[in-house]
Inverse folding.
């Protein structure tokens, strides 16, 4: 079974990421730390603060940052805890893609967020 080491950026990669979580013995029945990634569709542009606020309202801890100061190349990382299932991941992808569209962002996928201790025990 192939492991997926980067963020899942498509529905096919979602399945690979779920397989990776199973291989790493993650408890898919319980909440797991997840990060969702976004970037501007057409940089440079204004700070996507409204998208960050919407993600905060959904219960995520959200960071909005530029690649370099004042360059207009904005990125968002939204940290949260989610239960992972094929249907749940598909629903969340649809929700995140819609949020990205509303704010002229690109949804760059999601990843299982791991602590250093978790990364040390693959």
């Amino acid at each position: 079974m192939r492991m997926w080491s980067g963020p899942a950026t498509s529905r096919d990669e979602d399945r690979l990421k779920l397989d990776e979580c199973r291989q790493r013995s993650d408890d898919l029945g319980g909440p797991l730390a997840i990060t969702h990634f976004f970037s501007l569709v057409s940089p440079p542009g204004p700070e996507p603060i409204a998208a960050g606020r919407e993600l905060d309202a959904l219960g995520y801890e959200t960071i909005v940052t530029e690649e370099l100061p004042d360059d207009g190349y904005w990125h968002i990382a939204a940290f949260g805890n989610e239960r992972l299932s094929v249907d749940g991941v598909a629903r969340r992808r649809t929700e995140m893609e819609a949020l990205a569209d509303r704010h002229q962002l690109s949804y760059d996928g999601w990843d299982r967020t791991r602590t250093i201790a978790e990364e040390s025990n693959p």
Observations:
- The chain has one domain: 11-120.
- The longest strand covers residues 32-40.
